[in-house]
Request: fold
Amino acid sequence: MDLTVVAYVVYLVVSIGLTIWVARTLSRNGRVFLADVLHGNEKLADAVNHLLVVGFYLVNLGFVALYLSGDETISTTREVFEALSTKLGVVLLVLGVMHLGNVYVLNKIRRRGVMEREQQPPVPPQGWVAPVAGA
Reply:
C-alpha cells in the first residue's frame, strides 16, 4: 500500500475524531450558556445549540477535506509522520480557534442577556443635589 494513502487515512480518522469530540464538548457545555441567555427556554436552547453544532461540523469537516491533499510524495515512514504532524497541527489550531470563537460568542450573548435583565440601578437614588448657579 502507498504510504501517502496511509497518511491520508490516519489524517482523516484523527481529524474527524477530534472534530466530533470538540463538537460534543461544545454542545454539552454550550447548552448551559444558551439556556441562561434564553431565560430558561429549554426547547429554544436545544434548537440553537443543535444549529451551532451542525455549523461547527460543516466548517471543520469542510476544512479537513480541503486540507487533505498534499503536493509532496510520501515514500518513507518519517515522511508519513512529518506530513501527519503538519496536517494535524493545523487542524488542531483551527479547532482551537473555532472553539474559542464559539466560547467568545456565547459569552457575549450571555453577558448581553444578563445586562438586559439588570435594568434597575444597583442602589436606589437617595436624594438629589441642587444645581450650582453659573456652572
